[in-house]
UniProtKB/TrEMBL annotation:
Gene3D superfamilies to which the protein is assigned, alphabetical: NAD(P)-binding Rossmann-like Domain
A Pfam family matched in the record: NmrA
Lineage: Bacteria, Bacillati, Actinomycetota, Actinomycetes, Micromonosporales
Species of origin: Plantactinospora endophytica
Source taxon at top rank: Bacteria
Protein name: NmrA-like domain-containing protein
UniProtKB keywords: NADP
Family: Belongs to the NmrA-type oxidoreductase family.
Record domain NmrA-like: where: 10-248
Amino acid sequence: MTDAERNQYLVLGATGGQGGAVARALADRGRPVRGFARRAVAEPPVPLVTGDLGDPDAVRRAFDGVTHVAVTLPLVYDPKRVTEFARTIAEAARTAGVRRLVYNTNTSLPAVTTGYAAFETRRAAEEILRDSGVPLVVLRPPVYLENLFNPGVGGALMDQGVLAYPLPEDRPVAWLTHDDLGAAMVAALDRPELAGSTVDVGGPEVVTGPELASIFARTLGREVRYVRLDVELFEQGLGQALGAEAAAGVSGIYRFAGTDAGRNLFDLDPTVLSGTFGAAPTPIARWVEAQPWHRWSTVPAGEPG
């Protein structure tokens, strides 16, 4: 049995897109792993402990016997609640004798302090976890390709040949997949030499909006053009799915990215996945090809889109 197989892993946020990818990556590698989530789901990626991150007793139960923990916070942007979450995690990790925390900030963080809760709550949580005394690795990802696979983006893509997203056309983005995040998180959990590091981790290609649309066009064999989606409209649509508070928090990321100060927020080194984490990154075209885009089309089969 290897050292990694003797460890006990815990994934916070294991039923979400990002945490779920980490949980699956650990399970696929044969690691003993359980998840923590606010509520049960029909087909969890790993065995679950349910509870709220603000409930110290529930979090302590999840940490019982755990050696390594992957942390992805929910889409909550109230500073008081996020601070409570981070302190609860830090205390549980110290009490359990956890040997490694890996924290996914959900987004790239600007070098300067901003007025946007999506950045500043994650920055505050990072400091609390760092002060816990538990060896910490911080991963700061950019934008996920999975953000594009939904009825709004997919419907416009399939029916109108429009790839709409709330970023200016000229913004360079190192688009990352959830699976590649999972691979990076597992490497950060397992490699002692990464302890104490903070890593901006993006995908293997840095592209602007029109360049992204060109990849879609070549892969899907159809005309695709990029259109900057108004952030207000983006927030309204997101609010229907996530609620107003979460939508406002997420939208703040794109408001900042649309400013001069945020021009290079997502322009990350494309060699980090393979070089730092030893992961085989997913090309954008391969990810596009693998998605069932027809699911989002409202045009009947046989009719022109």
